[in-house]
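User: Could you go from structure to sequence for me? I need the amino acid at each position, not a summary. Structure tokens:
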């Protein structure tokens, strides 16, 4: 797992966050963070909830542990 995805996991805990809230903590642009969050959602490590025009992301509670296991088999 890429380090930027790992940082995104740790930055997007509860409460749900929008992408612009995550760009600063992970030091990446909005399109890059969106791409990584999509990959995390597809992998089942994060969830996405659409509220009007904004998408809110939340880490699945088991995600940090799953990410750690994936990085350190």
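Assistant: Here is the amino acid at each position, in order:
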């Amino acid at each position: 797992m890429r380090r930027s995805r790992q940082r995104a996991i740790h930055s997007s805990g509860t409460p749900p966050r929008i992408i612009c809230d995550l760009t600063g903590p992970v030091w990446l642009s909005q399109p890059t963070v969106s791409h990584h969050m999509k990959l995390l959602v597809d992998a089942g490590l994060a969830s996405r909830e659409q509220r009007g025009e904004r998408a809110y992301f939340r880490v699945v509670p088991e995600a940090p542990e799953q990410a750690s296991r994936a990085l350190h088999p």
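One structural detail worth keeping in mind: Residues 30-42 form the longest helix (13 residues).
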